[in-house]
Specification:
Layout lengths: L3 E7 L2 E9 L4 E3 L2 E2 H4 L3 H14 L5 E8 L3 H19 L4 H7 L29
Parallel strand pairs: 3-5
Antiparallel strand pairs: 1-2, 2-5, 3-4
Helix pairs in contact: 2-3
């Protein structure tokens, strides 16, 4: 198997993933998964598509992660891994889609509007 790449986004985070056959090592920005995401919850989020298909020990994953916060980065990585697994084996798509791993979350920060301090907040109204 050659290297399969995919991309995942969430909020401002972008994850570029390179999946190859191996022993289950996940390297993020040249650091180990446990070092990059010390929280066990975020490690679980990243590994969800692999655990769903039961292939956690089958592939080595190299990741370039950029932008956003740690939660957004973890969810961007989950989407990228799910997309890469579907490229490898298209029959897995329905299983991943039913869990919601194939859906790009469209919620992003609303832009600031002119004449207002923030996106929705208004300056204090003064009658006189």
């Amino acid at each position: 198997m050659e290297v399969v790449n995919a991309i995942g986004r969430r909020k401002a985070a972008v994850a570029r993933v390179f999946v190859s056959e191996g022993t289950g090592v996940i390297t993020i920005n040249k650091r180990d998964l446990a070092v990059y995401f010390p929280s066990s919850i975020l490690q679980y989020v990243v590994k969800q598509p692999l655990n769903k298909l039961g292939v956690a020990e089958k592939y080595d994953i190299k990741v370039n992660l950029d932008g956003g916060g740690f939660k957004g980065q973890a969810e961007a990585l989950r989407l990228a891994i799910a997309r890469a697994l579907v490229k490898i084996n298209p029959e897995d798509k329905s299983a991943l889609k039913s869990e919601g791993f194939m859906t790009r979350d469209p919620r992003v920060v609303e832009r600031k509007k002119p004449g207002q301090p923030k996106a929705r907040k208004r300056f204090q109204f003064s009658k006189r």
